Amino acid sequence: MVEVSSFWNREHTAILTEATFEVEDTVVGVAPAYLTLRTFGGRVGDLRIEAHGFPRFVLGEKLLLFLEPEQEGAHKVLGYLQGQYRVRNDGQGRPIAEPLFDTGARILRPDGTLAPAPRPQALAELKGQLREIAGRVGRPAVR
Amino acid sequence: MRKLGLSLASLTLVALLVLLAGSASAYVLLSPNRTWDCAPDYIVDNRAGGVPSILDADGGRTKTLNAITSNADAWNSESSGTVIKAHAGSVAGFALGDSIPMLNFTDPLSACTGTCLAATFTVTTASGAPVRVPGGSPTPTSSPTRPATTGPRRARTRAAPAARARSTSKG
Predict the structure, then answer these.
(1) 3-state helix, strand, coil in chain A (%, to 5)
(2) In 3D, which of A98, A55, A62, A96 has the Cα closest to residue A79?
(3) Could you tell me which of B124, B59, B121, B50 has the C-alpha nearest to residue B91?
(4) CA separation, residue A40 to residues A6, B91, B101 (Å)
(5) Are B142 and B36 in contact (CB under 8 A)?
(6) Is B31 within 8 Å of A104 when comparing Cβ atoms?
(7) Looking at beta carbons, which residues of chain B come within 8 Å of A103?
(8) Which of B10, B23, B96 comes nearest A49 by C-beta?
(9) Angle of helix B11-20 relative to helix A123-136, nearest 10 degrees?
(10) What is the mean pLDDT of chain A?
(11) The pTM is what?
(12) N or C: chain A end with fewer CB closer than 10 Å?
């Protein structure tokens, strides 16, 4: 993430945060070299608006994002915060994809029972899984 | 810093990835827990019809009010005394940061799209100073100073897709 800024919307009813990303790798589909995404919430002056469950952009973070297309070439993060993973290194320097799930969040199956929360896993492993699934459904992965 | 991109152009794969997430819905409890210094008084959207897809007398408004203030199974049952209040009123002046807690049956910010059922916003000041009410007195310092929940007008019809992905609930 190379740039982040927060600002009031035109109506002055909400604070938005816009982030610009440099794309290092694309797992499935096509992504531009640079990408700009918006989310609700952020801080302007002394006022901080928290948009619970929405993507959060912090300057300098490295992320794995699940994106879906919007109009006019724009994108948004799929499934709100569920589509955002933070990439960090473990103790051995291996990149780990860490789901940015709200603390206290619970995932329910359609029958109402509690599903296991997503857990951090090796980035290479997660990318491999995604490529395998993409291939299975006829979406060639980007190698 | 850089990011890894996964651009999805096919709804097929979108659906699949959602299924991989556990065919699940999600709700979010505000964390860390929020407290307030005095009972907030939520304004619940009083527009005629309420949520049109809710087929009771007022589109779910009374049930919403009761759900917030119930002494049996809501916040007021969890502690002695009244910890939260709510009344029906106009939400026409919806704006975050004005220190007026509000529950809006529509989605004035267009924040809640696709699989989202409801969205919650809280406002705090970084300095801990009270949030100023435009033209009025500052509210007592509390956290959150301004919770607001918005939701799509057709909440019920969107509930099914939300069950596959996520929704944010008020806290």
Answers:
(1) 15, 45, 40
(2) A55
(3) B50
(4) 9, 20, 18
(5) yes
(6) yes
(7) 31-32
(8) B96
(9) 130
(10) 90
(11) 0.74
(12) C
